[in-house]
Write a structure and sequence with these properties.
- The protein is mainly alpha-helical.
- 70% of the residues lie in helices and 3% in strands.
- The protein contains nine helices and three strands; from the N terminus they run H-E-E-E-H-H-H-H-H-H-H-H.
- Helix 1 crosses helix 8 and helix 8 packs antiparallel against helix 9.
- The longest helix is centred in the C-terminal third of the chain and has 40 residues.
């Protein structure tokens, strides 16, 4: 349906609104409602749904694995395993059985969240309005900064854990206080610099993914809002094809940076 110019701002604003739940009062609220107990339940729902689909799908494939006559799906999964394992071995030269499964989970989960951006802009929000009478719905979890920063916070916790486990709490604290200037007089400066370096890892990890996916989602909304339906494919199709590269690359970058940060945490000389 063609959106008049006067209605374009309202159309775009509606598609950028989250379905939010006030946990304290147990009621749906709009985007202008503030409070600590406010959850973007659409982002949480689609994140958990995609994670469940990913887990069940891989579980069923592994359960029915055939080493003599692998099918197309099994072959694809094996190639994905080889690809992830190859990157982990090249970047992470340490013995840790968690890193490879974690990298696989991050890559596939982030990729699936990004793929939601390829759904028609009005399809799922209109269905939710028609069937459930929901006031708003956003279907791209990785375009929600809360989701991307939550994932990067999980990676940050692992970074701190392995820093302390490998180096010990005293060496870790000493690294924050005595680098890059190895003199007690520079401890405040060292703490500020090292603190910024440490905190920039999860922040940049989450904001990079959020920024790229939010921009991609916004472009689809602008195309849908500014052009009549019969001409939208002229821009939608090439942008969607190009966006396939973006969503894959963003999942890969998130995975690679996670491996790099964990490798740095395991490096005793770092």
């Amino acid at each position: 349906m063609f959106i008049e110019v006067s209605d374009t701002q309202e159309y775009i604003g509606h598609h950028l609104k989250h379905l939010r739940l006030d946990l304290y009062n147990l009621k749906l609220v709009d985007d202008f409602h503030e409070g600590f107990w406010i959850l973007n339940i659409d982002s949480i729902f689609f994140s958990l749904l995609l994670g469940t689909i990913f887990s069940l799908f891989f579980y069923l494939v592994v359960k029915k694995v055939n080493y003599r006559f692998p099918g197309k799906i099994q072959t694809f999964i094996e190639l994905l395993f080889i690809f992830i394992n190859k990157n982990v071995k090249e970047i992470f030269p340490y013995d840790n059985k968690i890193v490879a499964p974690l990298s696989l989970t991050i890559f596939v989960w982030v990729f699936l969240m990004n793929v939601m951006d390829l759904f028609p802009v009005d399809l799922l929000p209109d269905l939710s309005k028609l069937l459930l009478d929901l006031p708003a719905l956003r279907v791209v979890p990785s375009a929600d900064v809360n989701i991307t920063l939550s994932m990067s916070l999980g990676v940050f916790i692992l970074i701190l854990y392995y820093n302390i486990k490998i180096k010990g709490i005293l060496r870790f604290i000493k690294g924050l206080l005595m680098q890059p200037f190895n003199h007690p007089i520079f401890i405040p400066i060292n703490l500020i610099l090292e603190g910024i370096i440490l905190l920039s890892k999860p922040i940049s990890l989450g904001l990079r993914l959020f920024g790229n996916m939010y921009a991609g989602e916004l472009i689809f909304i602008l195309i849908s809002g500014l052009l009549p339906w019969w001409s939208q494919w002229v821009l939608n199709l090439p942008w969607a094809i190009f966006h396939i590269l973006i969503i894959t690359l963003q999942a890969f970058i998130f995975m690679i940076l996670t491996i790099v940060y964990l490798a740095m945490a395991h490096d005793e000389s770092h």
